[in-house]
């Protein structure tokens, strides 16, 4: 596939890195020559110094032959303009990064589509949805729903109280006799393991599980976790993520939002009817104590500074908050934050890149998610007639060893995949895969 990416910022660079390993023909446009030189020395792609809103520069990038044009610069106006120009010049599909909710209103979205923008990606909105999802299920990490919740993927840490610690997957299956959930990956000491029957669960493992909604409590019990309700939450940072999260949850949770900018906090106080907005520095221990952080069930840090968010979450944990969520935009900090006890993490660039990545795949992809604290990706694909995935039972079709089929959505029913399961035409299939297996997985669904 020929792909033109406009913008060598965090999202564009990460997306280019993901795609460069998948045999795509990639061209990256940006006005920053030094930034492009650095990228060019590390990735197998073509870089062009120029403006994506320039017709001449787009022609130089041969955008007329592009299968996909992706505009992810920091400027919403440039993204929209360059996507419209690219479409007019012949690009088959265009995607624009936006930061304005108005463009997602159905009539506005349809109007822009009629002009030539096929898809929109709104990183802050994706991040806010992620936060809300994390707060909806206590005790789990990275909760994702498939087909409206018919199947769930979530991460859960194995504690010393777990009855499955030091047991193999086969032993646990024999012990429980339960086929309503399945471990599809294990994150251990920085590495991601695609487990088989002989692999053991160890203390501190972050285990990714596919299950039906009604099975979560049983899985938590096996992992040594206790369920708790989130009724009170504190949000640090009046960023777009903080604002969207607050707007969605202020009618269901007792919320406090702390914003360091006094003028901004005054505007936010007028914007929310129930949430309490506080002007102050969330790193101030006395302020947090005064505002009752020890009474909070959850603490969400979404300032523009990763270090502040990590430290604030550690402080909240020390004060007794059970659920902490940090926005960590520096990818190098993610493993560190996970290892020192930050509960859950969100990263806008990973979320946006994952959302866009599914449009680069040859198979019919309904959902794609790059997991924040793992090297792996979870993909929801549709099985079509005569595709290789439908040609036999899972144990007999030689599926890649560095990938795992977790479950199937067939009609209104969620099914946990087992060796004797046979996938049928029209099934939505949830696959957990390492980057090395993505192309091999695609071939099973073509």
Q: What descriptors fit this protein?
A:
446 residues; alpha/beta; Rossmann fold; Alpha-Beta Plaits; 4 domains; 6-stranded parallel sheet; 15 helices; 22 strands
The number of distinct helices, counting runs of at least 4 residues, comes to 15
Quaternary: single chain
Mean pLDDT: 90
Query: What's the gyration radius in Å?
Result: 23 Å
The count of DSSP E runs of length 2 or more, i.e. the number of strands, is 22
User: What is the CATH fold-level name of the largest domain?
Assistant: Rossmann fold
Molecular shape: globular
CATH classification class of the largest domain = Alpha Beta
The domain tally reads 4
Give the termini separation: 15 Å
CATH architecture of the largest domain: 3-Layer(aba) Sandwich
How helical, in percent, are the residues? 25-40%
| Range of strand content | 25-35%
Question: What is this structure's SSE topology?
Answer:
Blueprint: E1 2-6, H1 10-20, E2 25-30, H2 33-40, E3 46-49, H3 55-60, E4 68-71, H4 76-89, E5 94-97, H5 106-115, E6 119-121, H6 123-136, E7 141-146, E8 151-157, H7 169-176, E9 181-188, E10 191-193, E11 206-211, H8 216-222, E12 232-236, H9 240-249, E13 254-259, H10 262-271, E14 276-279, H11 285-290, E15 298-301, H12 306-318, E16 323-327, H13 334-339, E17 344-346, H14 348-357, E18 365-370, E19 377-382, E20 403-410, E21 413-416, E22 428-433, H15 438-445
Parallel strand pairs: 1-2, 1-4, 2-3, 4-5, 5-6, 12-13, 12-15, 13-14, 15-16, 16-17
Antiparallel strand pairs: 7-8, 8-11, 9-10, 9-11, 18-19, 19-22, 20-21, 20-22
Helix pairs in contact: 1-14, 6-9, 6-14
